[in-house]
Design brief:
Blueprint (H helix, E strand, L loop, with lengths): L4 E2 L3 H14 L17 E3 L3 E7 L2 E15 L5 E5 H4 L11
Parallel strand pairs: 1-2
Antiparallel strand pairs: 2-4, 3-4, 4-5
The structure holds zinc ion.
The site of zinc ion (ZN) has 8 residues, from loops.
Amino acid sequence: MSSPVPHVDPATKQKLEEWMRLKLPNFSSYHCPLCGMASGWIAGPLVAMPANQGGAVNFGTLVPVLPLTCSNCAYVLSLNAALVGLVPANPTGTP
Ligand SMILES: [Zn+2]
């Protein structure tokens, strides 16, 4: 399996690949936890999930997420796009 197939712009793809080389150097041999295949991952598009704060969903606080989807079974794992460096750490301007 190679690096994730990007459904993101070239700049985001480059940042993702640099981050993965640093943080997940063995990702190319990572098998999907659901189907067990190493058939490839599809990166993106970037999404935002509402945060849960104090037991309630707060739609004013969004967590930027980069989904990686298994190309065999559609299992989705997610990376915090801010921690990967793909978006500003606090895009919504909220704490
Ligand atoms: Zn899978």
